[in-house]
Amino acid sequence: MLTLKKVHHIAIICSHYETSKRFYTEVLGFKIVREVYRQERDSYKLDLALQDNYIIELFSFPHPPPRPSRPEACGLRHLAFEVDDVEAAAAALRQKDVITEPVRIDEFTGRKFTFFSDPDGLPLELYER
Hints:
Blueprint: E1 10-14, H1 17-27, E2 31-38, E3 43-50, E4 53-60, E5 79-83, H2 86-95, E6 104-105, E7 112-117, E8 123-128
Parallel strand pairs: 1-4, 5-8
Antiparallel strand pairs: 2-3, 3-4, 6-7, 7-8
Protein name: VOC family protein
InterPro entries: Fosfomycin_Res_Enzymes, Glyas_Bleomycin-R_OHBP_Dase, Glyas_Fos-R_dOase_dom, VOC_core
Keywords: Metal-binding
């Protein structure tokens, strides 16, 4: 029987490594666990943690193809982060020049949420705990 324990990590390919590295570390507050440059692939791999939990592998490649990434496109819909206060978290993002959508209420849970994007347009969500 298959017994999954948890999500181990989420892999993201970015188009501009330094821009995305800055966004995930300085704007969102992820901690760098390890950064490796793979010369044979002309590629970086950045391992990022949130609250000491390994979460994201950020990759760069020389010419990644574009991919539809809006929430209604086929594939990964979005990546959601839990916060205590959506409005305060959205305000903190706006102070760092990150555009957020208006805060909405989940019709099933009654919880507040909003969307924003990473530098490549990957849809990210703040969801109130």
